[in-house]
Amino acid sequence: MSPHRQITGELVIATHNPGKLAELRDLLAPFGIAAVSAGELGLAEPKETGTSFRDNARIKALAAAAAAQRAAFADDSGLAVDALGGAPGIHSARWAGPAKDFGAAMQRIERELSAQGDVQRTAHFACALCLAWPDQHLEEFAGRVDGVLVWPPRGTAGFGYDPMFLPDGHGRTFGEMTSAEKHSLPPRGGGLSHRARAFRQLAEACLAPR
Fold first, then answer.
1. Rounded to the nearest 10 degrees, what angle do helices 18-28 and 194-206 cross at?
2. What is the CATH number of the domain that holds 73?
3. Are strands 138-149 and 165-167 parallel, antiparallel or unpaired?
């Protein structure tokens, strides 16, 4: 197997989501990697036609790398609820609609769970990360964190479905945790989130600490 390719120079973060952008920049900062987002470069958002988080992360990273002609980094992630057959899954952002109203999306999840009566409220967040270069070389990593859903939502930190997700072994939702608690890698934090767990693998393979 060929060795992992190291990241050098400025990296494009293939997202137009400010919440994801902030988290990914925080994760990259200790490694001295400068990053510019696809949104800041005015790159078009490709259609996410994949059937998995991995597929969609790959689509976004390859499109950004080709358009910017530099290495690009994409994340695709979402919430999978066991009692809903894994939904919303890869459609997590779409459940929030064009207005990105995750309050309404959380209400929809709660409504669909309540309609089923007394069901397990287990769920997990999944994340796929993809690094792509203009020559189409890829590096791919995945992370997951398990938990349960609470209602009503708790906390105003984070973004997306964070306020209703209580990770296993913790007494506060992602929406009640600081950004460092949720996703910073040691020694700043515990690397708890799905994104941090995937990024830790990426860092070990493709990044050198400053």
1. 40
2. 3.90.950.10
3. antiparallel
In this prediction, the residues of the chain whose per-residue pLDDT falls under 50 are 1
**What's the pLDDT at 33?**
87
The Cα 123–Cα 162 span in angstroms is 12
Out of 26, 76, 101, 118, the active site residue is 76
Measured CA to CA, the distance from residue 181 to residue 194 in angstroms comes to 13
Residue 169: inside a domain, yes or no? yes
- Full-model pTM: 0.89
The residues facing 113 across adjacent strands are none
Beta bridge partners of 123: 81, 147
Helices (DSSP H) in the chain: which residue ranges? 18-28, 38-41, 53-68, 102-115, 179-183, 194-206
Both structure tokens of 17: 């989501």
Residue 76 designated active-site: yes
Question: Does 91 map to a domain?
Answer: yes
